[in-house]
Amino acid sequence: MQNVYLFIQVKKDLEDKIGQKSVYNALTFRVTDTEIQYIAKVNVGEDECAHVKISQTLPCYGEEVKLVDYQFPKKMLDIIEPF
């Protein structure tokens, strides 16, 4: 459930960047490296998705969560790959 919470924190940033106001939920998450970074496939309506990279600093540095990068548009069947 922590991964869903991470996405909720960057949801507005993604909506602002892709011009969509219908971002619903993150479908999958993968840890990308030893720094706490995640990649998520996010459904933004119908068969359209965005792939987002989310960074979270370690607790000792404040646990800041931010949207690092995104790929849009993507389709539901597009495989999520590190970027």
UniProtKB/TrEMBL annotation:
The UniProt entry, under InterPro entries, shows: Cystatin_sf
Protein name as annotated: Cystatin domain-containing protein
